[in-house]
């Protein structure tokens, strides 16, 4: 299992341009983007228009006295920084062919298990238009630790050229300062089974799915990225089959001790938009989400925003149960699509009028989510709560601050008895109301306030390391 950890960021000038110091200086044809970031590592990817051996210069406290050199003199580079300190701000720049980019800052991930996570997510943005840029810049201004791309990241067909023009150019400031992970949409799969997507992004991996599907822990949140195209038979079966992905997903979720679980994939099990709820995704994956206590499922595909009540099977879950909340966050830049049906009973909030993104903060046992337009208008807000066990007492000299969550020895923390917690939310900017629109035509509608209970939460936190971080 590949694991990543969080970054926090300084707000710095976004545009990165090489400052030429020689007549033969190269320029960056693709500005740096942060990939595979952890508490002690970060990959800085970029592209040049010349052939030289570039380096990333980096350091703490505004210095860039350390250096990591690329392995070759090609034009595509992904330089790995290692030996970094968790929860520490670094400045970095790219040095290539006698020129340097403007320095920008980022912070390494916090100590594993840290009970404070801030991330953003959106899908269906890869248009290279003003709406995409506005959403991306608004996300950057929120200074998230992590950005989840929910698919359809490079319209129209996910070609090599479209990744450059419709992802890396318009979102360069964000991607230079915020680590990102992605799942592919259907549009990526138009070109060679999404090969340009895999060529251009450096993603976590899983043993059976490679970069198709994977998981990682970020603070006290377990993230799972799925390639729903595999379920549709769009991928090579030897690389990503539905059966293998389901098997891996079940094992992965069962093995996670993180108190919060977030899954992201492109196709929505629940949606009242143009494409609608995807029955295959619903049938194959939602039982696992329910069984293993997934809190939040993030999707795109339909170009609107929508939040369900916590769902169980084909209906709204009963109050007092812990069930997944499903979001469609497809307003990242592509043209919005108006709802053509009345609001289903399982929909808490939906909006088809505004582009926007999801901003989530998970502090201890409270997940607070906001869906915001680029101008800051609130489309939706809600929170999920659960009780977490107290942090274990520090045992000096037995832990490492860079050890990942889940790699600690079981028994260092005690799971607590699950306790119910509420889901609260605002009415947002409703797009309509009316008839039930369930996958199961016999499913009852919702008339009671949904609720959730906490997950079994054997939190394997390194208390001493966490306290050290908090003292900083
Ligand atoms: Fe899509």
From TrEMBL:
Signal peptide extent: 1-25
Organism of derivation: Archangium gephyra
Membrane-spanning ranges: 449-466
Disordered: annotated span: 380-450
Domain (Calcineurin-like phosphoesterase): residue spans on this chain: 118-305
Low complexity: bias regions: 394-427
Keyword rRNA-binding: no
Keywords recorded for this protein, A-Z: Glycoprotein, Membrane, Signal, Transmembrane, Transmembrane helix
Residues covered by the Purple acid phosphatase C-terminal domain: 324-381
Keyword Transcription in record: no
Protein name per its UniProtKB record: Uncharacterized protein (TIGR03382 family)
GO molecular function: acid phosphatase activity; metal ion binding
